[in-house]
Q: What sequence folds into this?
């Protein structure tokens, strides 16, 4: 999404910091299993939301699962029926974008592009993790000012290693100001 | 003590998308640096940035927003919007157009 915006509106974006981005060139995302998994997850989420179980669960257990500060906000931002419907719509849009995707990479303008890649692979998605890393390499290789940084974290780098994101932002600002 | 959303992300504002929907965003202005726009991944809302937004706002302005249906943003009508389309709609923000800014994305 950020890449599309930078490509379409090059005068408005000075730099990109992409945290574990997914892109159309990741083969695993085009497999039927991925679409099915996403669909099943969304159906389950909507069912839990419609019956009120999701909010009950969040209210009772979220603080045990999420960092404490996140739980209340999840209730207000991401676990509302409207947000769950929005998530489902986004999933459909994302899957449609995958189906319609142009195999050619997005041509980014000449701006600094930093990609943060997680080094910890999920146990059941080692191959996908490998493909994601390869996609990040292709992206930074094709960008004129591309840089890839490996971060000792899982997919949610921004939660487990937020300082890596802060440093990447500071570095890109520094590069842009030179 | 838990920090409130305004302490973390700045002042709450609403923008109007091209199809007339209200879109909630929060802006922490800075006199020193450019504006950094944070975009959450699929299923993610404003809170995704709570872990790093306060640190970044020490050296740059920050903007976070809730896409359609999340938080206090109006849901999208009709066909499911592509996420890219939603973001590009945000370019009607006044701050977005006149300030040098970065954009960071975290995918699902």
A:
């Amino acid at each position: 999404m950020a890449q599309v915006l930078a490509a379409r509106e090059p005068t408005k974006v000075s730099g990109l910091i992409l945290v574990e981005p997914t892109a159309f060139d990741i083969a695993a995302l085009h497999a039927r299993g991925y679409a099915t998994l996403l669909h099943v997850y969304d159906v389950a989420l909507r069912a839990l939301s419609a019956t009120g179980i999701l909010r009950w669960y969040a209210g009772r257990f979220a603080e045990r699962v999420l960092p404490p500060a996140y739980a209340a906000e999840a209730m207000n931002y991401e676990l509302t029926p409207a947000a769950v419907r929005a998530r489902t719509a986004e999933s459909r849009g994302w899957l449609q974008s995958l189906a319609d995707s142009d195999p050619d990479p997005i041509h980014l303008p000449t701006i600094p592009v930093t990609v943060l890649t997680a080094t910890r692979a999920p146990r059941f998605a080692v191959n996908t993790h490998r493909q994601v890393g390869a996609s990040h390499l292709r992206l930074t290789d094709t960008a004129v000012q591309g840089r890839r940084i490996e971060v000792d974290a899982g997919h949610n780098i921004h939660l487990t290693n937020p300082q890596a994101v802060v440093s990447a932002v500071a570095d890109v600002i520094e590069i842009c100001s030179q | 003590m838990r920090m409130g959303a305004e302490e973390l992300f700045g002042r709450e504002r609403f923008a109007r998308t091209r199809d007339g929907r209200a879109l909630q965003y929060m802006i922490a202005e800075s006199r020193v640096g450019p504006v950094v726009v944070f975009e959450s991944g699929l299923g993610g809302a404003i809170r995704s940035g709570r872990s790093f937004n306060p640190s970044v706002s020490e050296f740059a302005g920050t903007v976070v927003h809730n896409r359609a249906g999340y938080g206090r943003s109006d849901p999208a009508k009709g066909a499911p919007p592509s996420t890219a389309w939603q973001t590009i709609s945000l370019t009607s923000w006044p701050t977005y157009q006149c300030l040098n800014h970065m954009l960071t994305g975290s995918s699902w």
Observations:
- Chain B has four helices and five strands.
- Chain B has one domain: 5-105.
- The longest strand of chain B covers residues 22-28.
